[in-house]
Amino acid sequence: MTKGPVIVITGTPGTGKTTHAELLASQSPVPLKHINVSDYVKERGLYEEYDEEWQTHTVDEDRLLDELEVIVSEGGVILDWHTCEAFPERWPDLVVVLRCDHSKLWSRLEKRGYPLKKIQENNEAEIMQVVMEEARSSYPAEIVVDLESETSDHLEANVERIIGWITQWLENSKEVN
Ligand code: DAT
Questions:
Q1: What are the sequence ranges of the domains in the chain?
Q2: Alpha-carbon distances, residue 45 vs 13, 50, 139, 177 (angstroms)
Q3: Is the CB of 106 under 6 A from ligand 1?
Q4: Number of CB atoms found within 10 A of residue 36's CB
Q5: Which pLDDT band holds residue 74 (cuts at 50, 70, 90)?
Q6: pTM of the complete model beyond 0.85
Q7: Residue 136 among known ligand-binding residues
Q8: Fewer CB atoms inside 10 Å of the end CB: C or N, the chain?
Q9: Which among 78, 108, 130, 154 is the best mutation to test ligand 1's pocket, defined by most ligand atoms within 8 Å of the CB?
Q10: What is the third-level CATH fold of 6-172?
Q11: How confident is the model at residue 3 (pLDDT cuts 50, 70, 90)?
Q12: For 46-149, where are the alpha helices, taking DSSP H only?
Protein backbone atom coordinates (compact mmCIF):
# COMPACT_ATOMS: atom_id res chain seq x y z
CA MET A 1 0.00 0.00 0.00
CA THR A 2 1.24 3.50 -0.82
CA LYS A 3 2.25 5.49 2.21
CA GLY A 4 0.97 9.03 2.45
CA PRO A 5 3.35 11.96 2.06
CA VAL A 6 5.19 13.77 4.84
CA ILE A 7 4.23 17.44 4.82
CA VAL A 8 5.89 20.05 6.99
CA ILE A 9 3.79 23.14 7.67
CA THR A 10 5.97 25.82 9.17
CA GLY A 11 5.99 29.59 9.73
CA THR A 12 6.22 32.16 12.49
CA PRO A 13 3.79 31.52 15.38
CA GLY A 14 0.35 32.86 14.48
CA THR A 15 0.70 32.51 10.70
CA GLY A 16 -1.93 29.75 10.66
CA LYS A 17 -0.07 26.43 10.74
CA THR A 18 -2.50 24.59 13.01
CA THR A 19 -5.54 26.02 11.24
CA HIS A 20 -4.14 24.84 7.89
CA ALA A 21 -3.03 21.45 9.23
CA GLU A 22 -6.44 20.68 10.73
CA LEU A 23 -8.32 21.62 7.57
CA LEU A 24 -5.85 19.73 5.41
CA ALA A 25 -6.09 16.59 7.58
CA SER A 26 -9.89 16.70 7.35
CA GLN A 27 -9.95 17.12 3.56
CA SER A 28 -6.98 15.08 2.41
CA PRO A 29 -7.65 12.19 -0.03
CA VAL A 30 -5.23 10.06 1.99
CA PRO A 31 -5.19 9.86 5.82
CA LEU A 32 -2.77 12.34 7.35
CA LYS A 33 -1.82 12.36 11.01
CA HIS A 34 -1.48 15.93 12.27
CA ILE A 35 1.36 16.36 14.75
CA ASN A 36 1.37 19.74 16.44
CA VAL A 37 5.01 19.48 17.48
CA SER A 38 4.82 22.06 20.30
CA ASP A 39 1.88 20.20 21.89
CA TYR A 40 3.61 16.88 21.29
CA VAL A 41 6.72 18.11 23.10
CA LYS A 42 4.62 19.15 26.09
CA GLU A 43 2.53 15.98 26.15
CA ARG A 44 5.60 13.75 25.96
CA GLY A 45 7.74 15.88 28.28
CA LEU A 46 10.41 16.31 25.59
CA TYR A 47 11.93 19.46 26.98
CA GLU A 48 14.98 20.24 28.96
CA GLU A 49 13.84 23.29 30.92
CA TYR A 50 11.29 26.09 31.00
CA ASP A 51 12.70 29.48 30.05
CA GLU A 52 10.86 32.00 32.25
CA GLU A 53 12.14 35.01 30.36
CA TRP A 54 10.82 33.86 26.99
CA GLN A 55 7.99 31.81 28.49
CA THR A 56 8.91 28.89 26.35
CA HIS A 57 10.27 25.37 26.69
CA THR A 58 13.76 24.39 25.57
CA VAL A 59 13.12 21.32 23.47
CA ASP A 60 15.14 18.14 23.82
CA GLU A 61 15.66 17.81 20.07
CA ASP A 62 17.45 14.47 20.15
CA ARG A 63 14.57 12.76 21.92
CA LEU A 64 12.00 14.60 19.82
CA LEU A 65 13.61 13.52 16.56
CA ASP A 66 13.95 9.92 17.74
CA GLU A 67 10.24 9.79 18.53
CA LEU A 68 9.16 11.58 15.36
CA GLU A 69 11.33 9.32 13.22
CA VAL A 70 9.06 6.39 14.12
CA ILE A 71 5.92 8.33 13.15
CA VAL A 72 7.44 9.81 9.99
CA SER A 73 8.62 6.39 8.78
CA GLU A 74 4.94 5.31 8.61
CA GLY A 75 4.22 8.17 6.17
CA GLY A 76 1.02 10.21 6.00
CA VAL A 77 2.05 12.92 8.45
CA ILE A 78 1.72 16.68 8.80
CA LEU A 79 4.43 18.14 11.01
CA ASP A 80 3.20 21.51 12.30
CA TRP A 81 5.98 23.55 13.94
CA HIS A 82 7.35 27.10 13.96
CA THR A 83 10.77 25.87 12.94
CA CYS A 84 11.78 23.18 10.47
CA GLU A 85 15.56 22.97 10.15
CA ALA A 86 15.81 20.27 12.82
CA PHE A 87 13.91 17.82 10.58
CA PRO A 88 16.31 15.74 8.46
CA GLU A 89 16.35 16.62 4.77
CA ARG A 90 15.13 13.13 3.86
CA TRP A 91 11.87 13.47 5.86
CA PRO A 92 9.59 15.91 4.05
CA ASP A 93 8.03 15.50 0.63
CA LEU A 94 6.69 19.04 0.85
CA VAL A 95 7.56 22.02 3.06
CA VAL A 96 4.91 24.73 3.28
CA VAL A 97 5.99 28.06 4.77
CA LEU A 98 3.06 30.25 5.77
CA ARG A 99 3.44 34.02 5.56
CA CYS A 100 1.40 36.80 7.10
CA ASP A 101 1.52 40.58 7.03
CA HIS A 102 3.25 41.64 10.26
CA SER A 103 0.54 43.97 11.53
CA LYS A 104 -2.05 41.24 11.14
CA LEU A 105 0.31 38.82 12.85
CA TRP A 106 0.77 41.29 15.70
CA SER A 107 -2.94 41.38 16.47
CA ARG A 108 -3.24 37.58 16.24
CA LEU A 109 -0.44 37.17 18.80
CA GLU A 110 -1.90 39.90 21.00
CA LYS A 111 -5.23 38.04 21.01
CA ARG A 112 -3.33 34.96 22.07
CA GLY A 113 -2.11 36.82 25.15
CA TYR A 114 1.58 36.65 24.27
CA PRO A 115 3.82 39.01 26.28
CA LEU A 116 5.00 42.08 24.36
CA LYS A 117 8.57 40.83 24.07
CA LYS A 118 7.42 37.59 22.47
CA ILE A 119 5.13 39.45 20.06
CA GLN A 120 8.01 41.74 19.05
CA GLU A 121 10.42 38.86 18.58
CA ASN A 122 7.98 36.92 16.40
CA ASN A 123 7.00 40.00 14.44
CA GLU A 124 10.60 40.74 13.65
CA ALA A 125 11.20 37.12 12.65
CA GLU A 126 8.29 37.36 10.20
CA ILE A 127 9.58 40.61 8.71
CA MET A 128 13.08 39.14 8.39
CA GLN A 129 11.66 35.96 6.76
CA VAL A 130 13.57 33.82 9.26
CA VAL A 131 11.53 30.64 8.77
CA MET A 132 11.55 31.05 4.98
CA GLU A 133 15.35 31.31 4.99
CA GLU A 134 15.55 28.30 7.27
CA ALA A 135 13.38 26.23 4.96
CA ARG A 136 15.24 27.32 1.83
CA SER A 137 18.62 26.48 3.36
CA SER A 138 17.50 23.10 4.72
CA TYR A 139 15.54 21.53 1.83
CA PRO A 140 15.69 21.38 -1.98
CA ALA A 141 14.05 24.45 -3.52
CA GLU A 142 11.55 22.33 -5.47
CA ILE A 143 9.85 21.01 -2.32
CA VAL A 144 9.56 24.37 -0.53
CA VAL A 145 6.55 26.60 -1.14
CA ASP A 146 5.54 29.78 0.63
CA LEU A 147 1.88 30.66 0.88
CA GLU A 148 0.10 33.76 2.12
CA SER A 149 -2.14 33.18 5.13
CA GLU A 150 -3.95 36.41 5.84
CA THR A 151 -7.59 35.65 5.04
CA SER A 152 -9.98 32.71 5.06
CA ASP A 153 -9.88 32.81 1.24
CA HIS A 154 -6.12 32.24 1.45
CA LEU A 155 -6.69 29.37 3.87
CA GLU A 156 -9.15 27.63 1.56
CA ALA A 157 -7.04 28.22 -1.56
CA ASN A 158 -3.89 27.00 0.19
CA VAL A 159 -5.51 23.80 1.40
CA GLU A 160 -6.97 23.18 -2.05
CA ARG A 161 -3.53 23.68 -3.56
CA ILE A 162 -1.87 21.27 -1.12
CA ILE A 163 -4.60 18.70 -1.81
CA GLY A 164 -3.86 19.08 -5.53
CA TRP A 165 -0.22 18.45 -4.75
CA ILE A 166 -1.08 15.33 -2.67
CA THR A 167 -3.24 13.94 -5.49
CA GLN A 168 -0.34 14.37 -7.91
CA TRP A 169 2.07 12.86 -5.39
CA LEU A 170 -0.18 9.79 -5.05
CA GLU A 171 -0.33 9.40 -8.84
CA ASN A 172 3.46 9.60 -9.07
CA SER A 173 3.88 7.05 -6.27
CA LYS A 174 1.61 4.60 -8.13
CA GLU A 175 3.77 4.89 -11.25
CA VAL A 176 6.92 4.21 -9.26
CA ASN A 177 5.51 1.16 -7.39
P1 DAT B 1 -0.08 28.89 14.26
O2 DAT B 1 -0.44 27.43 14.34
O3 DAT B 1 0.81 29.21 13.09
O4 DAT B 1 0.47 29.45 15.53
P5 DAT B 1 -2.95 29.29 14.20
O6 DAT B 1 -3.40 28.29 13.20
O7 DAT B 1 -3.14 28.93 15.64
O8 DAT B 1 -1.42 29.70 13.97
O9 DAT B 1 -3.69 30.66 13.85
C10 DAT B 1 -3.56 31.81 14.68
C11 DAT B 1 -4.84 32.61 14.63
O12 DAT B 1 -4.97 33.22 13.36
C13 DAT B 1 -6.11 31.79 14.85
O14 DAT B 1 -7.01 32.61 15.59
C15 DAT B 1 -6.66 31.57 13.47
C16 DAT B 1 -6.16 32.77 12.71
N17 DAT B 1 -5.80 32.47 11.31
C18 DAT B 1 -4.80 31.67 10.91
N19 DAT B 1 -4.72 31.63 9.57
C20 DAT B 1 -5.69 32.45 9.11
C21 DAT B 1 -6.11 32.84 7.81
N22 DAT B 1 -5.51 32.40 6.69
N23 DAT B 1 -7.14 33.70 7.72
C24 DAT B 1 -7.76 34.17 8.82
N25 DAT B 1 -7.41 33.83 10.09
C26 DAT B 1 -6.38 32.99 10.23
A1: 6-172
A2: 21, 11, 28, 39
A3: no
A4: 18
A5: very high
A6: yes
A7: no
A8: N
A9: 108
A10: Rossmann fold (3.40.50)
A11: confident
A12: 61-73, 102-111, 116-127, 130-138
